[in-house]
Structure formats: C-alpha cells, structure tokens
Specification:
Two copies of one chain form a homodimer. By secondary structure, chain A is an alpha+beta fold. Chain A has two domains: 100 residues, Hypothetical Oxidoreductase Yiak, Chain: A, domain 1 (Orthogonal Bundle); 195 residues, Malate/L-lactate/L-sulpholactate dehydrogenase, NADPH binding domain (Ribosomal Protein S8, Chain: A, domain 1, 2-Layer Sandwich), CATH 3.30.1370.60. Chain A is 41% helix and 18% strand. The first copy, chain A, is globular, with a radius of gyration of 20 Å. The two termini of chain A are 28 Å apart.
Chain lengths: 338, 338
Amino acid sequence: MSETITLNPGELETLVRRALVASNTSENTAGSVARALVTAECAGQKGHGISRVASYSAQARSGKVDGHATPTLTAVKTATVHIDANHGFAYPAIDLAIETLPALTREHGLSAVGINHSHHSGQAGYHVERLAQQGVIAMMFGNSPQAIAPWGSTTPVYGTNPLAFAAPRKDASPLVVDLSLTKVARGKIMVAAKNDEAIPQGWALGPDGEPTTDPHLALKGTMLPIGDAKGAALAMVFEILAVALTGANFGYEASSFFEAEGDRPGVGQILIAFATDGIRDEGVFADRLEALLGLVASQEGVRLPGTRSQALKQVALKDGVTVSRAILADVQKIASSL
Amino acid sequence: MSETITLNPGELETLVRRALVASNTSENTAGSVARALVTAECAGQKGHGISRVASYSAQARSGKVDGHATPTLTAVKTATVHIDANHGFAYPAIDLAIETLPALTREHGLSAVGINHSHHSGQAGYHVERLAQQGVIAMMFGNSPQAIAPWGSTTPVYGTNPLAFAAPRKDASPLVVDLSLTKVARGKIMVAAKNDEAIPQGWALGPDGEPTTDPHLALKGTMLPIGDAKGAALAMVFEILAVALTGANFGYEASSFFEAEGDRPGVGQILIAFATDGIRDEGVFADRLEALLGLVASQEGVRLPGTRSQALKQVALKDGVTVSRAILADVQKIASSL
C-alpha cells in the first residue's frame, strides 16, 4: 500500500473540522482551524498542515487551548485595534483581524491589529495573502516558543519568529513572501532527531554554544538565525512588535505549541496593512510593482516568492491533495472519537 | 604625524556645513546633512560619516543632487503622508518626516511617511532613534543602488537595503537596531579592492554567479544577502515598501550615491511609527520591553543592539571625535573653496 493517499481538499477540511469538534472545540473555531491547516497542506507547507491535528486536538482536550474561546476586539486608536485571542486557537483571532483591516486601511492609509493570548499562527503567508486578495498590502510578524539566542549567548530567548508579506497584483495572484528567521525550519531538526540522522553544520548550536550535527543536542541548544547577529536582532524586533506592543508572552515565556500539558503559550501576532494608494496613486503602486516583478520573473533561474505554494494549491483544488496515510488515519481516529 | 586627529564634534559639523555651502547647497540643507554625517562619524559609522563629504559636494556641484531643493509634503490619508525630496539630499526630507510622524502616530496609533526622489539616507539608526526619543516606536525601510540578485540569478536588482528600528525605553536611551540585508557592507569590499586584498568566501559572487574572493570581481557581481533566498526575498519586500508605494526608483534603476555624473538616484524611504499605547496601555509596552531587554542584557557575552554606537557618541561629545587627517583635509579644502 502506498504511504500516501490523494483526496479532495473539501473532504479533508470536513474531516479535520470533525476531529476538532470531537476535541472540545466549537464548530466555528474548528472551521477556521480546519481551513488554515488544509490550506497549508495543499500549499505544500506540511509542517503547518494536518500533521498538527493530533497536537491541536490534544491541547483542546486538555484545555491548554480553549476551543470554545471567541476573540474579543477593542478599537484602540483610529487606525489600531487590539484583539484578545482569549487563549483559543490563533486562527479565529487572525480571521477577525483580516475582516477588520481592509476598511480601516483604506480610510487611514495604513492600520494595524495586535493579537495577544494567542497560539501557533501556522502558515503566515495564508493570512497576508487573504488581505492582499482584498486589495491591501499586508505584513504579519509573530513569535513562537524560544529557539534563537541573542547573538553571543547560548540561551534561547526569541522564537523562530515568522514574517509574512503580501501585495496585491493587477492581473495575477498576490505576491506572497513567507519566511522565518532561522536558517532552517525547526521541524527539519525534529525529523532528523526522530530518524537519528545527523544534521548539516550551520543549522544549530548545541547547549554549549558550539556548532553541532547531532539533532538531539540541537533541540536542546539554539537554532542559528539568518545573518547571525543580524537575524538575532530581527528576531528581537519581531518580539517587540508582536509581543511588547500587544502584551503577549515572549518566546522565552511561551510553552510548546505541540505538548498538551503546561501553561498556555500566550504568544502574539501583529498584522499591519497599507493601502496601495496610501502614499501615491494606486496606479503608481501597481505599475511600479509590475515593473519590479516582471524584471525579476524574467531572470533565468528565478522563481517569484510564493509561486510554488500557489501552484501546489491549484493542483490540489483540481486533482486533490496528497497526504500521509498514517497522519490521515490519526485524524480519522480523532474525528470518530466523538 | 598620526594619521588621525581628534576634534570637537560641533566644530566638525560647522566645517562640513561650510563645505556643503561652498558646494552649491543651501544653509538649511547643509546643516541637516552635516548633522547626519557628523552624528554617524561620532557613532563609529564612518561609512556614513565625513568620508561622504567629497562625493556629496561633487554631486551638489554637478547638480546630480539639488542642494537647494526643499522637500514638499502632501497629506494623503489620515495617517499617511508623502514627502517628495525633490532630488535633494535625503536628510531634509527625513527630518521633515521625523517632525511629522509623532503627532500623527499618537492620534492614529500608527502612521507612515513615504519619501521619493531621494538619495543616500546614511545611518538609518540615527533617524529612527530621533523618533524614539520623541516617544514613538519607529521603523525605516530604504533602498539603494543594485547590489543583491534575486535568489538564483546573477544580475543585481535590489539594493543592500537598510532596515532600522528603534523603541523608546523608560529610563534608558532608545533601543536601536540598524542593519542592511547583505552579509557585509559593500564598503568593506570597496576598501579591499582599493588595497588589492582578497575578501573572504561568502561575502559576494562574481558576475558569473560563482563565489569569489576577488574584490574587483565582487564589485562587478552581486553581494550575498543574509539567509540566502530569505534575505533576497526581504530585499524585495523593502523595495516594494520604500519604492513601489512611494513611486521611487528601484535599486536596478538607481544611479550611484558616489559618482558626481549620471542620472539622479531617485531612491525611496518609508518611515513607519507606532504609538506605545497603540495596541495596549503604554505601561504594558514599557514593562514588557524592559522584561525582554533586561533578560537579554543580563546574558553573558551579549550586548544590546545599538549600545556600541551610543557609547561612542557619548565619548565623542565628551572627548571629541577622532577622524582621518586625510579625509579632514579634503573637507577643509572643499570648505575653503567658497
């Protein structure tokens, strides 16, 4: 039997929703989480896809995540909004931010929503892409449990800290940039540890601050940031924007996004949107953007950021999404446990 | 005779101002430029310091920079402003942005100023630090002439593209992060080329896209971004914010910041400020920030970003700033050419 199976994304979403509803989560929240996880799965971002269902469900069952929380919104200044995720999943809070930002942005030229008491935000590109589909330029900064040390230290403080950016285009899908500040995803080291395989030099440091190829030591040590001291400084900036402004927990205070026990992670996110006519006419932005992207896309060996994920999503919609049979069986088991 | 000389920063600023006034530049603009260059010199950022006076003066004399331009400000949306630098130096336009942003930010929670028809913005940290001194959190993104290739390409498109961030602190100087997206400053390769010395692997690629240790080939090739594909994607994001939104010139369209001949560079900058009480109470921000910075600063081997520059500025104010005699002689010669 093949290790994978291809199925309809809509059916997969229904199944994931059922698994969450069976795990002490409201219908609305389960729908929001299922959409996010299945979209990431279809986009080839399997680390943010249905592999998360088991740990999400366990956290909702244990109460570490409040599956029945609804996010609460407070207008703060004319162009800024606070959303308290109330220790629920991040996705309903981010959905509410995405509903709120476009009108506010068009009125003021830019606007921001800060979220606290939040959880794993998944594929950050999915969130900003939805804003760009509504015609605004969007950035999102978030934090995650400690992984990166301040440069010179051996103690992790900052998360791997995602950044996503999206811009609407005239006659094409939005441009989407989605990255984290570590040289590689922590998930790659977790896979290597599971398989007891060495990791390349340059991915991580051991607890002693020395480079290591042992994934077990790496998981006890720190992840190397892009650009060394520069990436560590960027990780600090993202913590300040997503956490200090919103009153969330810093990376070093946040519990695991995977384990069902322990305190609530309480991380933060901030979404900032810009109107395409916020500084100059909309046509200036559209023309300038196409000039840049046209030049970049015409270069040999270059692929615009985000295009692989977008192409995979198209394929998934047309031909179905291919998932691991083992992970699917886990989801089915959780869904049938109601 | 020593190759350096120590002098009073105020006297140095007067001298730089005179050199610019002697080079077809208005008193006001010369004052703004002199303050920026001498502040960078005092902060140990000599690449953005008085070494620039000769090329700035030559550009003002040739008319490549309009030394008599005054920036024009247009309120666009309630929280966004456009400033046209009118092909003058960047500093008067950035000064105007810094005057404009704090009140707008306090009213709306955040605000942004986009600048086009601009020039070299120098030490980006100087600009955001002045905003933080007025109590707002600030970010600045800018672009510069082409240096970084889209990942996979051998043709430079994006600038080295500075990012600066500053946050006000309760009882301390602002936190200031100031970095560019290349692994090393282009100036280091220019110095190596001048001295015909090899550069380390990993700084740059030659025109063929292969790693090179030859600084001359490196200057004809591309600078390596931090985090490889990630840094190249960030460079694209900065170009979109600082250029597509403002109607400026992209890195691949911008002429040199050094040469007196050629088209005007016409680059862009965007400054974004956040109120410390934009999302939560001001006390939440202040307390959270101090918790993070206190922890980071307490770690062995760690220095908070920006503290070296701030300490050097203190020393310069007290004991004078040490500059190259050769560069000082150039500035004196230009100043006495009135």
